[in-house]
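Board work, copied verbatim: Homoserine O-acetyltransferase
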Amino acid sequence: MPITIPRQLPAHGILEKENVFIMDTVRATTQDIRPLNIVIVNLMPEKERTETQLLRLLGNSPLQVLVTFLRTATHDSKTVSKSHLNQFYQTFHAIKHKRFDGMIITGAPVELMSFEEVNYWEELKLIMEWSKTHVTSVMHICWAAQAALYHHYGIGKFTLPTKCTGVFPHSVSHSTVELIRGFDDEFLAPHSRYTGTSLAAIQADDRLMVLAATNNDDPFIVISKDEKHIMITGHFEYDHDTLAKEYQRDKKKGLDPVIPKNYFANDDTKKTPLNRWRSHAHLLFSNWLNYYVYQETPYEWK
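↓ predict structure ↓
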């Protein structure tokens, strides 16, 4: 079944060319089917790119998925047009009376600030608390994963000596857990962040389970044992060239960025990197939609 998005959304044309099964909202209303309602809290600055990346992964499913995009009311994005936000995004106030089958909260470029310093932190806390009773399963990505660990479980973050950027191998534990069903024992995934979270602190919390970590004991996939919260500390959704664009962006800013590890062939930044994590990214999102959203959500919310 397709993913349902507005025909005017820029991602619609991109995904259509990629042969991703999509359907516009007008046609979807003619089908007698109950779609999965997913709300995406998009905190990334380049919202259109993130929309495409996430919709591509959500569209690889036999389930019909209806997506709602959410923006913060307490922060004005400077990197996307107001017309785009007004046309395709809603605020929490407009949707707080609704219930959703799943939620995705993206990363955000605010890692070096304390959580309390982020100008939309109180709003995000409100959304995370609301999700406990109005959303079946929540996936948190990168900074949002650290925010969830901090808000829900009191586990903080720490600043890394240098930026963690590149494509890293990860080892699987608890391979029978449905979220990582079908994963290889070792797989690759991209990371891009300035902060980390203690593996020991997560393992010491009996409410949490680490499903995958880097070979340097950096937690990557964490799930709460009640299966309500999923924390992904990296960026499975990234395109093959996203890290390259971030590197070039930071270089133009004069930040002297480190070259992403295990990414460019021979660390030659002029070479086009390969996507070596696509299959596991699709598998993770398919498993999430099937086992943690579709299988768990009530047909009719009460």
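Residues 3-158+196-238+278-294 form a domain with the Rossmann fold fold (CATH 3.40.50.880).
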